[in-house]
Every structure is written in C-alpha cells, then in structure tokens.
TrEMBL record:
Region annotated Disordered, chain positions: 128-151
Membership in a protein family: Belongs to the complex I 51 kDa subunit family.
Protein name: NADH-ubiquinone oxidoreductase-F iron-sulfur binding region domain-containing protein
Pfam family, one: NADH_4Fe-4S
Length: 501
C-alpha cells in the first residue's frame, strides 16, 4: 500500500484506500497522504479527513472535487470552514478524533481507534509491537473471549491459555476471522483497518502459550481483509520489530458453520466434510493437526493488546464481570449499518444513536443469526448481562420496524438452522427439523408452546456445539416477548400484516 510522507509534515490528508479518491489526493504536492481503512460508519463513507497542527476536518460522503479542495487547502495550511465537523486534538494522536455528533461519537473508540486514521500496514503508526509477558495482566483483568468463533466465548481466556501451556506439543495460535454471518462486521473491520493491532494481540498470545506459529484463518470471500492482513504481515517482516515463528494466512469456505471453533480447524486441515468435534479434548489440548491450539477472534486479540498496553484504563474483573469494550454492529431496518464500540457497562440502547431507523421501532434481535428478540435494549452491553437476558453476544444488534413479523423472522432463522447445520449430532440435526415443523404448524392453527419449549430445552442442553444450542434462541425469545403474535397466527392472522395464510 503506497503512502507519501514528508519528514516533519504537519498537514495530513487521510483517504479510503483502494478508492477512486486516492488519485486526486496525490495530485497536490506538499501534502502527506495516508490511505486508511473504513471507520465502521457506513453513513459517512467515503470519509476523508484533513489534519493541520492538531485540528482535523471531516468530509463525509466525499467525492473527487472535495478531495482536491481539501488537498489544495492543506498545501496552504488551511482547513475548510464548512467541514462536516472540526475537532481539536493533540498533534501526536494515534487514534481517530471523534466529533461530538454522529455515529463516530457513539461509545468509546478504543480498539477501533486506528480505524480510518492510520494506514493498515504502518507499524510505527500503531505504536509498534507490544512488549512484555501478557499472562498476569490478562489473568488479573479477567478478559473474556469475544465472538462465536472464539476458543473461550464469554469465558476467561487466561484459563484457555493455561490449558494450552499444560498440554504436550508445540502450541499454535489461530486467528479465527471466518465470519460468514455478514451482520457481524467487527472482525472484518479490524482486519481491513487495523490488522497490525490484531497481529500484535496474536503475538502476545503466542508469547503467553509459547506458540511457534500464528495462523490467520479468513473467509474466502473477504478479499480486502486478506490483502490487508498479508500486507501487515509483510510490514512486520520488513520492520525493526522482531517476529518469531511462522505466520500464515489461510482461507476457509463462506459457510456459517466454518466459523465455529472446531469446524474452523476441520476446514483448515482440508476435511472433505466439515463437522463439529467432540469435546473434550478441547482444541487447546488437541487442536490443529493434533497440536495445542489457542483460537481467538480478531476482536478478542484487539482486546488483549488494549489490555496489556493500558491495564488501568482497561479495567479488571474486580470492577466489572466483563472488562473492556465490545464491538457492536448495528443493522436491520436502518439506512446504513454501523459498527460502534461500547464500554461493557453501557446500555445497549446507545447503539440507536448511531443509526437512522426506518419506520417505527418494534423489536431488536441481539446476537446475529441466532440472536435473541427483545422489545427493549435497556440492558448492559456485557456478556453476563446479555446472556442473563437470553440475548446473544456475537456483536450484532438488528433494529426492526413494525412491518417485521416476529413469528416469520424466527421461522426464517429456524429454517437456516435446519439447512446449514453440520449434521453430526442428533439433537441439532433432527431437532432443527422438528423445530421448523412445529413453527409451520402455527400457521396451520396449532400452536404447541409446551412442545416447542421442551424441544428447544433439549437441543440447548445436548447439542455437540453451540450451533444447536444457539439455534433455539430466536424461537424461545420470540415466544417470550411476542406470545400474542404466535397465538394470532394460530388463529389465521398476522398482526404485522406480512404473512399469508
């Protein structure tokens, strides 16, 4: 990725990499141009920022003429008076300064800080690699894993590291970034905008478990993320930072199941049929090619880095049952999807300030493909709070208006579960079929609530992996909060007016 720099230059123009704006940005001499990744705020894209001596102007939905005007002004040391936002900040800032209004103002941009501000392959811009032994720091903070593909989802990751350290064999660290649920944008955003922070976190984990190799496992369709990661790996190799061991990037199929921890290992080993592995043994004991394997998502690794670099600001388990922040991608019936970063103690309702909801709000689905439905988002963003409310922790909030039918939406997700499960265990393979049949019966006039709840309880407690357990959540939560809609459908009418009988 090309970047034009002038030693000591104080005027910087930041433009989205690989966009039509890059050429015009380079047309004006005397301006430092930094090609950056996305910020996560799609409503503002393409976003261009211009910085002069600790003051940054934001130009949203920029075009080539806007870029040329900004560059010409920067050449004279000027910023436009009519910018969409102007923010004063310290000159040496390493993270994106945030305006007081708009989607970038929601939450706290800690791990998202470099996104849209530094070049994805600039090692110095992110402060280089993090030194020291992370084990005690991470243990003391009580950091929990983030995302369904993590080896310790919503559990303390230090325990997973201990298991790998105690196991026989050479350990390996897997960065599991194969997320086929495209509602979940946090991992992809980090790899496209700040891959070096993820790699830094992976190297910290490798140091903690004495791993010799790091493997980044991507979705085969995520071409941009793959290019950025490969550039970041090459930048580390060319820098003064010492990186030990082998570091490889591999791609897996664009299938939802391929992101599950053990099925990710199956895909990386080239299995013809991807199925969940029985546990124990856990991957941290017997994982990739039989080696002790620590699996973390990019979101978890970015949190590891943030924790080790500034443990006091990060917090600890004595202060929170889920220290740090959580990335939340907001979608559904909104004009533009947005990814925000919330402190875990903040209310999840704050995500509504980051988007424009189309129509009148009816309900939310929290947790992605197999998230939970709720009428209110008045719940903390922490994993324990979300799980207590029977909501998912995959890092997604979908906002739906009154045109959406709770029964039909839950039914679509049940159909997905029936069609996409790996087929290994009976509770999931057969349970998802029965689940969909019982939901179809509702439209035929038979709402068997007790049978539905007993089936979902059995699936949740006996399935081999989280797929079967989580697949029940959309149905059970829809029944909890929208019981009257199920009964109305059994009577032959849809309160939302969207279903046909």
């Amino acid at each position: 990725m090309e970047e034009t720099r002038e030693e000591g230059a104080s005027s910087v123009l930041r433009v989205p990499a690989d966009s039509s704006l890059v050429g015009p940005a380079h047309d004006v001499e005397g301006v430092t141009v930094v090609e950056v990744g996305p910020t996560g705020a799609r409503a503002l894209a393409p976003l261009v920022t211009a910085t002069v001596d600790g003051r940054t102007a934001f130009a949203t939905n920029a075009d080539t003429e806007t870029v040329r005007a900004l560059a010409e002004g920067l050449a004279d040391g000027d910023l436009p008076d009519d910018a969409d936002a102007l923010v004063d900040h310290e000159e040496s800032r390493e993270t994106l300064p945030t305006p007081e209004k708009g989607p970038l103002s929601v939450g706290r941009r800690r791990v998202l800080g470099p996104c849209g501000w530094v070049a994805p392959d600039d090692v110095d811009a992110v402060g280089g690699l993090t030194r020291g032994d992370p084990r005690e720091t991470v243990r003391d903070t009580g950091l929990l894993g983030r995302g369904r593909g993590d080896g310790a989802p919503d559990r303390r990751i230090a325990d997973e590291w201990d298991r790998a350290t105690d196991a026989d064999g050479d350990s390996v660290v897997v960065v599991n970034a194969n997320e086929a649920d495209h509602r979940v944008e946090g991992d992809r955003l980090l790899l496209e905008s700040a891959p070096l922070t993820v790699l830094d976190g992976a190297l910290l984990v490798a140091r903690a478990v004495e791993a010799t190799d790091v493997v980044v496992y991507l979705n085969e369709d995520d071409d941009v993320a793959r290019t950025r990661v490969e550039s970041a790996v090459a930048a580390l190799a060319d820098s003064d930072e010492r990186v030990d061991g082998e570091h490889s990037v591999v791609a897996g199929p664009d299938r939802y199941i391929a992101g599950e921890m053990t099925m990710a290992l199956e895909a990386m080993e080239g299995a013809d049929r991807i199925e969940a592995r029985l546990r124990p043994p856990y991957p941290s004991e017997h994982g990739l090619y039989g080696r002790p394997t620590v699996v973390h998502t990019p979101r978890t690794l970015a949190q590891v880095r943030s924790c080790v670099r500034d443990p006091e600001a990060f917090g600890s388990h004595s202060e929170s049952d889920d220290p740090g922040t959580r990335l939340v991608s907001v979608g559904g019936d909104v004009a533009h999807r947005t990814t925000v970063e919330l402190p875990t103690g903040a209310s999840l309702a704050r995500v509504r300030d980051a988007v424009d909801v189309e129509g009148r709000f009816k309900m939310a689905c929290v947790g992605g493909q197999f998230g939970g439905f709720a009428r209110s988002l008045d719940v903390p963003a922490s994993a324990p709070a979300l799980l207590a409310a029977d909501l998912g922790t995959a890092g997604v909030v979908e906002l739906f208006d009154t045109d959406q039918c709770a029964v039909a939406t839950a039914g679509k997700r049940a159909r997905f579960a029936r069609d996409e499960n790996c087929g290994r265990c009976v509770p999931c393979r057969e349970g998802t079929k029965q689940l969909l049949d019982l939901l179809r019966d509702v439209y035929d006039g038979s709402y068997e609530a007790d049978m539905l709840r007993e089936l979902t309880r059995t699936m949740a407690t006996t399935s081999t992996c989280a797929f079967g357990a989580d697949a029940t959540r959309p149905v059970t939560t829809a029944m909890d909060d929208f019981e009257t809609e199920f009964r109305a459908h059994a009577e032959g009418r849809c309160p939302s007016g969207t279903c046909e009988f």
